[in-house]
User: Fold this.
Amino acid sequence: MKLFLLVTISLCVLYSQAIHGIVINDITVPNLVTISRNDSNDTINLDCDYELSDNEPNLLVKWFMNNKLIYQWIRGHEPAVLPYFRDFIELSKTSDEPDHEYRGLTLTNINIQLNGTYRCSVHTGAQYKSMEKDLHIVDISDDEISFNDRKVQNETHLECTVSNIFPKPILTLVSDNPNTVITMDKANVVLRENAHFDASLTAVAQNADGSDNFDCYVSFEGLPFNISAKAEADELNENADSGALNVNTQTVVNILFVIVTLLMF
Ligand SMILES: *[C@@H]1O[C@H](CO)[C@@H](O)[C@H](O)[C@H]1NC(C)=O
Ligand SMILES: *[C@@H]1O[C@H](CO)[C@@H](O)[C@H](O)[C@H]1NC(C)=O
Ligand SMILES: *[C@@H]1O[C@H](CO)[C@@H](O)[C@H](O)[C@H]1NC(C)=O
Ligand SMILES: *[C@@H]1O[C@H](CO)[C@@H](O)[C@H](O)[C@H]1NC(C)=O
Ligand SMILES: *[C@@H]1O[C@H](CO)[C@@H](O)[C@H](O)[C@H]1NC(C)=O
Assistant:
């Protein structure tokens, strides 16, 4: 009798640990993708990590963006991309296992139209499970940031502008002196025709001793990412310098080539 109970209990435990239908462990959708000038990431991989109970007769995996179907795969068939999304999906095999072959996809031609909520849904004959995550795209590939601080008597007048950036920027003017009071005006934000934004912000700082270092930060609501106007300016200068260096090297090589050619004749 005891043995019988033990066997029954063990079987129950085993049974409840086996997968019933579908379990989605997680989906891979990067929370933040930045498109920047020097960025070589031209694709984003999305994956849907699920487990199925054995011998599910049917399997259908779908991906949605902002509740619109963009992709689907029926086990044993080729995956299909919805026509309006064809330019943005590169078909790629996720796995060699038949249950997982085309469960994920690769986004390509990354641009701000791909910002949104992505959902993977997994269907078997009897069941259906889904999971979704947000993909935030920040486009700083063609932006311009300018920042000015101008002393006027015992005040400093600050002005920061950013143009052609996505999504909507939040500008913040800061000082390295915690005692300096900065009075900011209301930021002016304009939506451009290309769905990017321009913004500007002015402020007055009361800093009698005049030794403050000011900066302007561009951030985005809810995103762990910001740009410092000063750092951006430094980086642009650096790039300009290395550009100049390249030109010089090239010029030297050309001159040497001319000299060598002349010497040969
Ligand atoms: C570029 O891809 C790598 C690896 O795929 C990832 O770690 C990184 O976050 C990506 N960069 C951006 C800006 O998306
Ligand atoms: C690319 O830009 C980022 C900031 O946008 C910078 O941190 C990084 O050093 C740059 N990489 C190269 C190779 O220039
Ligand atoms: C980008 O996508 C996220 C996730 O769906 C959304 O919360 C956010 O509002 C979108 N941003 C813009 C500017 O549409
Ligand atoms: C700045 O100067 C003005 C007058 O020139 C004065 O009224 C004001 O109190 C000064 N502010 C500070 C912070 O010293
Ligand atoms: C900017 O981001 C850094 C981390 O990268 C953070 O420490 C800082 O507080 C942020 N500044 C602003 C003004 O958002």
